[in-house]
Design goal:
heterodimer; A: 266 residues; mainly alpha; MetI-like fold; globular; B: 258 residues; alpha/beta; D-Maltodextrin-Binding Protein, domain 2; 9 helices; 24% strand
Chain lengths: 266, 258
Amino acid sequence: MSLKRLGGAPVGLTVPALVALTFLIVPVVAVVLRVPWSTFLSDISSSGARDSLRLSVVTSLIAAGLCLLFGVPLAWILARVVFPGRSLVRALVTLPLVLPPVVGGVALLLALGRRGLVGQWLDLWFGLTIPFTQTAVVLAQTFVALPFLVISVEGAFRASDERYDDAAATLGASRWHTFRRVTLPLALPGIVSGAVLSWARALGEFGATITFAGNFPGTTRTMPIEVYLALNSDPDAAIALSMILIAVSIGVLALLRERWLTGLST
Amino acid sequence: MLSPSHPPPVRRIATAALIAGCLLATLPACGGGTEAKSKLTIFAASSLTESFDQLERAYEKEHPGVDIVISYGSSTELADQITQGAPADVIATADANSIGTVDDAGLLDGAPQQFTSNTLAIVTPADNPAAVASIDDLNDVDFVTCDPSAPCGAAASSFLKKAGISAAPVSLEADVKSVLSKVTLGEADAGIVYVTDSVAAGEKVTTVAIPADLNVVNPYFLGVVKASDAPDLAGDWIALVMSQVGHRVLADAGFGVQ
């Protein structure tokens, strides 16, 4: 109804919007068209492909969980607490977004590697070495995915009216209680979409993973690394594997959109 | 308000004058090189970087009118790019397979020629913390190699088989430079790289030689791309690589020359 009153979508917006949509979709369509259907099943059911898909799904889910666990509190602090240097902290949080992932991987090595800033003590005191393990995969994914969660959740906290917090406080609720019963439920759609975004980013993570965690079948070879290596030896298999990654992502995103995002935001 | 983002006008004028002066100063130089330089584009495996950079200077001294542009990358990727129509005059790969795909596609002028070869070496961090002294020590340490889909990984895996080493690497890196960086950062106790990489890494690594009878020899091939605009210049480049000068440069970098 409001569309009628306001008039149709102006050409100045529709045309660039269509260009953007085409630009995003055509490469994906090109992959779908090139899928070698005759060998598709054998390509995707190889044990290597199954191992790396399982590894990718498990590690990306753990990474998304870690993002939630640590990112939501950080987002709340950034949205609700005024402290000196807040804009600097916000800029630091987004740093992994602009850093090339490979550089992120090197940074993680320098911090958590066997001779890293922190890693050397982990090795010395606990005999813990992180590189080349699944822990390293999860950490690399969390490093690149966390900013996505923090940014979208901080936006959600800011968008929800702070006066509800005030009202709860006047009624005698502690700040922790207010956070759990008022702030969190109000921001839930933003938190869910932030979690989905960070999960998707973790699933597709390549550069930081191969640099920090290395690549070994079954241990650290995630789906994107499998695709990259297959490109060298068997491009058809690489396309088939990319198709799996595309299908999994579209499936999960569509499912979540159905179940959560629309339901909560209306 | 406190930020000094606006320099005082005097300084701005001075900067503008400086820039203008620089521009004027370069003009005669620009005008001098009126005759168009012909360009020779070479696609070469990354391991050739140091040697080909050196040969490029030698070639350009002999052919003052020619500008050489070298694109270094993984052999398989370079071969892919040429079969997809990338404009190159010469391709040089670190294996027979990659240049073979270009040849099979009918894009090569003549057959690929072998011009050198590379063998493998074990490198450890400079202080060799795991005390790797011989190939058998690989069984007891965390070592890395290239992924078998890359030529250096295929070579490493056939060496391990030949040497009867049963331990698996902790990581299969995408290319030889990543193997080297895992070692120089001390994340791996040892890595298997080309001899040329161990030479290029210098003091950052300690090299443990692999006995010749167990080593794997990777042949390097080059050829002129059929679509080349300058087949004569490309031929001259190949002649330079095959010459005594070329062989000396390659041998200095650790390559094997016949």
